[in-house]
Design brief:
The protein has a five-stranded mixed beta sheet. Strands 2-1-6-3 form a four-stranded mixed beta sheet, with no helix packed on it. Strands 9-8-10 form a three-stranded parallel beta sheet, with no helix packed on it. The chain has one domain. 45% of the residues are buried. The radius of gyration is 25 Å and the shape is globular. It has six helices and twelve strands.
């Protein structure tokens, strides 16, 4: 039996539905930047934690050997050029594996990793004794370690290489004074990578002693020697009595080569990543830089850099971590005040006492 009253079903009108959708879209637009900001803050904290753990590992190495690890196992001192080619070509991160809960990997390495040890001579072929020509070193170098990766970087994403270039993993990276030594293997994407390396000062342990025409100009880069270099033997006691552990950069982040078009041409391999100088300043990972041009502030293979919004993070000699602002650190001829402060922070015995608060986060 039906009643004579009509039945009505409640529902949104088209206008009301469009209004609700518009409100939801506005809320999402407002919330998304906040979510991204929180995510980046978490990534920044995790990146700082990685650097702190690496610095603590260096301190634990010091407890065992009464000296900090060398920045790079390169040629014998006095035999830099032409080299004898019987050296390991490994960087500081490899030597710290036992102190980063990766002792099982370190024990499998075939190359003797002692600072006073050199592989047997194998002729005069360039790099014949290097880790990439030896097994199981080459195989183990494909291992991936989360502690070596800044979470803000897409370090292992397969990004298309920039036009006219091929992707490569850098198999050694060291600051040898005159220039930065580095070489890459094209299309070896499976090699393990890193965002972290040691700080070599302005231009390394063997920087030319004398005024530079490209830096300052007239600055003597040899005054800004850092913690790490080729087979260095610095102790924490020495570092404390020089500029002080809390005033000297020990490890920093970089290896960024993405840029605005999200294309990557190279990445640092952790096995050979040793130490890097600061003379070219700090680069922004969202841009591609040219260290020969002081006006470019983007990332490059020879620059410490980051994907963080305002800073590049570093671990200091005392194990603390702080961000160093980009500022005008790439302006080196004529050099900016920020450039001088960065070199002061990276040098272990420069004796400078300029105010650093404007550059430190």
């Amino acid at each position: 039996m039906f009643s004579g009253k009509p039945r009505f079903r409640s529902a949104f009108t088209l206008i009301e539905l469009l209004v609700v959708i518009a409100i939801i879209a506005i809320l999402m637009a407002l919330l998304l930047p906040a979510v991204q900001k929180v995510r980046e803050a978490a990534n920044k904290m995790l990146c700082a934690s990685n650097l702190r753990q690496i610095a603590i590992a260096a301190h634990n190495y010091h407890n065992d050997f009464n000296q900090l690890p060398p920045g790079y196992l390169g040629p014998r001192p006095g035999d830099e050029w032409p080299p004898s080619y019987n050296f390991q070509s490994v960087g500081v991160l490899c030597l710290l594996l036992p102190y980063l809960e990766q002792d099982n990997v370190f024990k499998q390495l075939g190359t003797n990793m002692g600072i006073d040890n050199y592989p047997p001579p194998v002729g005069t072929t360039p790099n014949a004794s290097a880790w990439w020509n030896r097994n199981p070193d080459w195989t183990l170098a494909h291992s991936r370690f989360k502690m070596f990766q800044c979470p803000s970087d897409t370090l292992y994403e397969d990004l298309s290489p920039r036009s006219g270039s091929s992707f490569g993993v850098i198999v050694y990276l060291h600051q040898f004074g005159i220039s930065t030594g580095w070489a890459w293997f094209v299309n070896y994407q499976d090699l393990g990578r890193t965002n972290y390396v040691g700080v070599a000062g302005a231009n390394g342990e063997f920087a030319l002693n004398g005024p530079s025409t490209a830096d300052g100009p007239g600055v003597n880069l040899a005054e800004y020697k850092g913690v790490f270099g080729n087979r260095t033997r610095l102790t924490l006691g020495q570092l404390s009595t020089l500029d002080g552990t809390s005033n000297t950069l020990m490890f920093g982040e970089g290896g960024i080569d993405v840029g605005p078009q999200r294309q990557r041409s190279w990445a640092w391999g952790w096995m050979g990543a040793g130490c890097l100088g600061t003379k070219f300043g700090l680069g922004r990972g969202t841009m591609i830089g040219d260290p020969a041009n002081s006006t470019t502030t983007g990332a490059h293979v020879v620059r410490f850099s980051s994907m963080h919004a305002a800073v590049v993070q570093f671990a200091f000699g005392d194990g603390s971590t702080r961000g160093v602002r980009f500022g005008q650190t790439t302006v080196r001829n004529p050099a900016s005040q920020d450039w001088f402060v960065l070199q002061q922070l990276s040098g272990r015995n420069d004796g400078r006492n300029q105010e650093t608060s404007a550059l430190l986060d």
